[in-house]
Amino acid sequence: MGGQAKKKSKSKRRDSRGASGHALMSPQERVKAKMQDKAKKKTAEKYTVGQLLEKTEECMDNFDFPMAKMFCQRALDIEPTNLSVLDMLGNICAELGDVDKAKQVFLKAVELSPDEGHSKYMYLGQIHTGMEAVQYFSKGIEVMLNGIDKQAQEGSDMGAAAMPLEPSVTAKDVSVAFCSIAEIFFTDLCMEEGSAEKCKEAIEKALHYDQHNPEALQLMASYLFSIENVTDGRDYLIKSVSSWLPSLQKEEESPASAEQDEEEEPPQNSIPPYESRITTAKLLIEAEEFEMATEVLEGLLEEDDEVVQVWYLLGWLFYLQLDKLGTTEDTESLRKSARTYLIKAKKLYVKLRCEDPPMLEHTEQLLGELGGELVADDDDDEAGPSIDDIGDDFIQSSEDEEEDEAMEH
Known about the structure:
Elements: H1 2-16, H2 27-46, H3 49-61, H4 65-78, H5 83-95, H6 99-112, H7 119-127, H8 130-158, H9 171-186, H10 195-209, H11 214-226, H12 230-242, H13 245-253, H14 255-261, H15 274-286, H16 290-303, H17 308-320, H18 328-351, H19 357-370, H20 374-382, H21 387-408
């Protein structure tokens, strides 16, 4: 009896646990796992990795990143150590905001091939902070420079005619990476010993690899302003803005011709991101380059007129000019413009529920010095109905027109 009881007990344990000693899956989980395995095998039998990557790229071109992720994951199931697939999947996960998955994929790529492929290091640098980020960016730069040397060697061995039209790694890529390191020493690590020297060194290297890089030029301007060398800082800043502002203005004035010339546009005229241009405007205001600052900020409003900081900076810009002009007429015009922009900034701040108390406090302080909000509110009325009312007015006027036509007939 005792032996039989033991056998039954062991049998029960075997029923509830697998060979590995882990609890078995539920019936639903087993069915799901079998379906997934079947789908993987079917995919592996039916499609090649190349075909799956073609479908992945097609989905990415159409901004269908969830479907792109599915195809890319299938390709990775077939070839788990394929570096191209890992790189693509990591970028897709980054686009989808799946930081943990992207990090996991890129770290796997680093493990498999630490000395090839710089993009994984650039992404890992972006999602880390401090010295850890610097180390990833530095390793990426090392990989890029080795790649450039290799391309140059292959070119000399094979002849100029055999060189690819566009090398996979450019000096501009290296410059951008050094800018990332400089920004870390300028912000996260600014209190560390020797951070100023390391920041300057990274900026100088960025400019060495691309002297026209607007980001590097602007970083040098910021650095020089921080050590109170305003004169040289202004020169770098103007050079930076002059490298992209004319192209942006041309695009705004004639979008069709800008699209035609896009392929011919030199790399140094690439337009910085929106947030970077806000920083540019702040620096221009600090350098008292008010006209250029106005052009940058007005261009930002053309792209997006619901960014509180842009309206606030325009108001502050006109306020700062009040003491620069002598005539009463000019002063009143500037006062009116400053008040109008600041009122818009305050209203938008409330509407969008922003959380930047210092900016709101400064806005209210400036409005108090400018005489409050009443005149600007009247100005809004003089300008006619707001954009938000256009839809209602249009519908009402259309209905009135239909009634008039009916009466005529």
